[in-house]
């Protein structure tokens, strides 16, 4: 987990971008123990800004009792997250192709009614067998 990216993500989730230290610690502990996905995500985001230093670059200000993300911090975070969309190729598939390959056509109505009737009969037979063995 990348500490500095996590701090930016935590602060941006608070109204006004300010969070008391106790809240920051609690949120960081939750994210640190949330699993590998969060760790991998923060590493990917941090790789987009290799020289990241949230305090010396003015991305986060220390205020009484907590930290606050600055406008510059928000811009850097948006930059890190926007790059993930640019890195992935955009694939456009016509809707006809998607629907044709993922949704099989329904069987004719008479065949569906026949299947439904057969299922009902099997359930009825199963209930009758269960009653006869229970007696």
Structure explained in plain terms:
The protein is mainly α. It has two domains: 85 residues, Winged helix-like DNA-binding domain superfamily/Winged helix DNA-binding domain (Arc Repressor Mutant, subunit A, Orthogonal Bundle); 29 residues. Helix 1 packs across helix 3. A hairpin with a 2-residue loop joins strand 2 and strand 3. Helix content is 63%, strand content 8%. Strands 1-3-2 form a three-stranded antiparallel β-sheet. The mean pLDDT is 82.
List the keywords.
single chain; 135 residues; mainly alpha; Arc Repressor Mutant, subunit A; 2 domains; 3-stranded antiparallel beta sheet; 6 helices; elongated
Calculate the terminal CA-CA distance, rounded to whole Å.
Answer: 63 Å
Biggest pleated sheet: 3 strands, antiparallel
Order of strands in the sheet with most strands: 1-3-2
Radius of gyration: 28 Å
CATH level 1 class label of the largest domain: Mainly Alpha
CATH superfamily assignment of the largest domain? Answer: Winged helix-like DNA-binding domain superfamily/Winged helix DNA-binding domain
Structural class: mainly alpha
Strand composition percent? 5-15%
What is the H/E string? HEHHEEHHH
Could you tell me the mean pLDDT? 82
